[in-house]
Amino acid sequence: MPDFNFDQFKRDMKDGFNAAANGLASAAGQASNAVQDAARDAKIKSVNTRDFLRFARDLERSGMVTSHGGNLSICNGPNIWITRTGAMLGHLTPNDISRVNWAESVELDSNASMELKVHRAMYHAAAEKLGQGEEFGSKAIIHAHSLYTTFRSLVSESLVPMDSEGVLLLGSEVPVFSPTETVASDEVATMMAQLVREGGRIAIIRGHGPFAIGNTLEEAYRLTSTLEHSAKLLTLFEQTGRKPE
User: Fold this and answer.
1) Residue 158 falls within a domain, yes or no?
2) In sequence order, which residues have a C-beta less than 8 Å from that of residue 208 and are 6 or more positions away?
3) Pick from 20, 93, 141, 223: CA 20 to 30 A from residue 85's CA?
4) Per-residue pLDDT tens for 7-41?
5) Global confidence as pTM
6) Considering the domain boundaries, does residue 14 fall inside one?
7) Which residues pair with 81 in a beta bridge?
8) How far is CA 12 from CA 6, 16, 76, 179, in A?
């Protein structure tokens, strides 16, 4: 019978203890990272929810959406937060906000707004324009059904602001797109993505209303409300029978 090698036994025991300790440390590190990620996501959701509730109410109170119309989203890195399909913006709750991924997901996308494909395409285009991937930062999108803006889209190929604020924020004109399918269509997603790639921030879908993208929901809301104001002024001015000088 060979002699028992106590030195080898001690080395094996030491290696075993070290491996176990390393495993515990790794598990603890992973648990800590998971807790930190959860805390970060909770903080982001809290901030996003506050902004969603604020600007959803503003859209409804200003008459820029119907009772169940319109949608909002915020993109924070790989996560997109968006109002659920059929949500009442004037009575929005935290449960009406869905989180979806940067890439399509049948399971997660099912509760989101019908216009998610347009929002996602615009975010992807913004990241592409910046030469970055899903970590491009934070952006926000508002899609409204503004009355005067939608009316102007039915009678004009573009909206040309005549008021100083409109010109300052919207530029010389806002394009009107005329897709074959206006609601939740791949065609609209392609059109709006191209607009964003070219540096545009807002456009109107004929008979359906505007999409606006900004760094925050407040910025997107400002573009949307300024466009509606300009559209109303144009309509009122035309009713006088005069032409711009």
Assistant:
1) yes
2) 145, 150, 153, 182, 183
3) 223
4) 766 777 777 777 777 777 666 666 555 555 444 45
5) 0.81
6) no
7) 74, 99
8) 10, 6, 49, 72
